[in-house]
Amino acid sequence: MSLQRCGWANTANPLYLHYHDHEWGVPCHDELRLFEMLNLEGAQAGLSWETVLNKRENYRLAFDAWDAEKIALYDEAKIANLMQNAGIIRNRLKIHATISNAKAYLKLRVETGGLDSYLWAYVDGKPILNKGERIVMTDLSDQISKDLKKRGFKFVGSTIIYAYMQAIGMVNDHAHDCAWRQVSPV
């Protein structure tokens, strides 16, 4: 007997199943992964998550293992190189956004200690357990989005931020019949 998963995870893609089973909705406090996921969620804009997930390892290689200090220093030559990299989404605005995000993140790290302390303060350190309906943005994702934009982050609209909140476990949106709904710490 196989375990029931969220409907969106019913796919033959092992990367997708691993992501659903081991990452999505699990509270994350790792700075590197928080920065990575913020940028990957932005890269997803207009595309499917599976497209980005399939390119995740290429992104890690192309963006110096998500080292914000290195990314913040990218110049036009590096951007041109990234635009030729078929392993990532070759969208100039999204590449520039990642560089802007690295610079904004470095400032945020000085001001608040980093994404972990900044983000989790919005929910008093505890994930929100959704009632099971399909949600794409909330007042909270609006609030975080607006503040991140003020801080210089790009591709952080409310819908992207809500997906990010789900991805890093600030929100547990596993379906009621999903075996992982109760597994994710709440």
TrEMBL record:
This is DNA-3-methyladenine glycosylase I. It comes from the Bacteria. Gene3D superfamilies: Hypothetical protein, domain 2. It comes from Undibacterium seohonense. The lineage of its organism: Bacteria, Pseudomonadati, Pseudomonadota, Betaproteobacteria, Burkholderiales.
